[in-house]
Design a protein that fits this description.
The chain is α/β, with parallel strands linked by helices. Helices cover 32% and strands 26% of the residues. The structure holds inosinic acid (IMP).
């Protein structure tokens, strides 16, 4: 069976994809291929960072690979935190990142925001990009304890609860990451039957 590397160290994310691509690809992660380098994410866009990761593996390990990069874009903050989402407050602490967002959004009327994921699939030397977006708004206070990152302050459009109040199974159906993954999976399945 053809092999496909997912440029992640997250075992949970790997299992999810492994199940979705069962019978089509053998999905390996960075640990499986012995890649223990902290691949730099120095680009100014999600596309750029995802591509840096997928092409690193493709070049150094000569294997097809995909990588994702995600973040929160807030309209009133010129799409910040964006690619800096994980370390917006200069720390990787979610609570501190949320505090900084709430401080910058204090008194701001336009609360529109979106989560975005871009996947770069490097296949036979070609880069295929898949994007997933979910729009919503930034709450003025935290609500909920599930999820991670900015979930307690993000309310997706069409809901009156935050991502952190939502069951994981529900979030995983509508999230930016899920949408981007669905697009890539459809592309790979389509290709296999073409
Ligand atoms: P990554 O590229 O998936 O590692 O995401 C980068 C950062 O964006 C994370 O560290 C979080 O701060 C934020 N982020 C991405 N996806 C989500 C989400 O689904 N909920 C909350 N925060 C997220």
């Amino acid at each position: 069976m053809k092999q496909l590397v997912f440029a992640t160290n997250n075992q949970h994310k790997t299992e999810e994809i492994r199940m979705a691509l069962e019978g089509l690809y053998e999905v390996l992660n960075l640990e499986d291929i012995g890649c223990f380098v902290d691949i730099p994410e120095t680009a100014a866009t999600f596309e750029g960072n995802a591509t840096l990761k997928s092409s690193y593996v493709a070049e150094h390990f000569r294997l097809d690979c995909f990588a994702d990069d995600s973040g929160l874009e807030i309209e009133a903050l010129n799409n910040e935190p964006g690619v800096y989402s994980a370390r917006y407050s200069c720390s990787r602490d979610s609570q501190e990142n949320i505090n900084l967002v709430l401080q910058k959004m204090n008194g701001v009327e336009n609360r529109k925001a979106r989560f975005k994921t871009v996947i770069s699939l490097m296949q036979n030397g070609q880069n295929h990009l898949f994007e997933g977006v979910i729009t919503g708004s930034i709450r003025t206070e935290l609500s909920g304890a599930k999820g991670f990152g900015y979930d307690p302050i993000f309310q997706p459009d069409g809901y009156n609860i935050t991502f952190a109040e939502m069951e994981m199974s529900e979030k995983n159906k509508i999230s930016h990451r899920a949408l981007a993954l669905q697009k890539m999976i459809a592309f790979l399945r389509n290709e296999a039957t073409a």
